[in-house]
Design goal:
Number of helices of chain A: 0
Largest sheet of chain A: 6 strands, mixed
Number of strands of chain B: 11
Strand content of chain A: over 45%
Shape of chain B: globular
Largest sheet of chain B: 7 strands, mixed
Radius of gyration of chain A: 14 Å
Helix content of chain B: under 10%
Shape of chain A: globular
Strand content of chain B: over 45%
Distance between the termini of chain A: 41 Å
Order of helices and strands of chain B: EEEEEEEEEEE
Number of helices of chain B: 0
Number of strands of chain A: 12
Distance between the termini of chain B: 37 Å
Structural class of chain A: mainly beta
Oligomer: heterodimer
Chain lengths: ~120, ~110
């Protein structure tokens, strides 16, 4: 079935450090890929998305590229801030076609950024 | 901009009681999804509705039922509550149910079963 695997966490960084959170997905069909972020005590917010191979999603300095050949969607940011501390979920939709877009989440990566 | 509204935000119930969670999607959104997030876990898909018809079903217990009404709001009914039902329940909405559509999440309802 559909699945998403994220790198083991948690991740602790100093402010202005480079961030990479690895994500791979099962290669069934043509899913859309998303990164959602959950700040402490809050709901899920869309960070960025990509709907087809080689698309790059970007938002607030974060980027991720849909790599079909490696079935990956790694999240990167060049310089993290304390306010980026949150849980990050790599997410895929159904395979496409006539399927509806229920989401499958990775296990989440806790990011803590220290001043 | 209007967001997804969920009520109540917090709910405490005893075992074997029933609970009803409500979700009001973003205006003009016709698709609603329900997810359950246990403590320290990732959200798990429960059920979805498109234009008031059930469109997909995930790992939803038989004790739970849901529907989408004519105004597109949705309710998740949970009966014979168990301790293991304690979780954060998210509703999300989208315009159309296609796989490319972004799902916008509500703040969640935190259910505690004692």
């Amino acid at each position: 079935g559909d699945s998403v695997t994220q790198m083991e966490g948690p991740v602790t960084l100093s402010e202005e450090a480079f961030l990479t959170i690895n994500c791979t997905y099962t290669a069934t069909g043509y899913p859309s890929l998303f990164w959602y972020v959950q700040y402490p005590g809050e709901g899920l917010q869309l960070l960025l998305k990509a709907t087809k191979a080689d698309d790059k999603g970007s938002n607030k300095g974060f980027e991720a590229t849909y790599r079909k050949e490696t079935t990956s969607f790694h999240l990167e940011k060049g310089s993290v801030q304390v306010s980026d501390s949150a849980v990050y979920f790599c997410t895929r939709s159904n395979a496409g076609g006539t399927s509806y877009g229920k989401l499958t989440f990775g296990q989440g990566t806790i990011l803590t950024v220290h001043p | 901009a209007a967001g997804v509204i969920q009520s109540p935000r917090h709910l405490i119930k005893e075992k074997r009681e029933t609970a009803t969670l409500k979700c009001y999607p973003i205006p003009r959104h016709d698709t609603v999804y329900w997810y359950q997030q246990g403590p320290g876990q990732d959200p798990q898909f429960l059920i979805s509705f498109y234009e008031k018809m059930q469109s997909d079903k995930g790992s939803i217990p038989d004790r739970f039922s849901a529907q989408q009404f004519s105004d597109y709001h949705s309710e998740l009914n949970m009966s014979s509550l168990e301790l293991g039902d304690s979780a954060l329940y998210f509703c999300a909405s989208s315009l159309g149910g296609g796989v490319q559509e972004t799902q916008y999440f509500g703040p969640g309802t935190r259910l505690l079963v004692l």
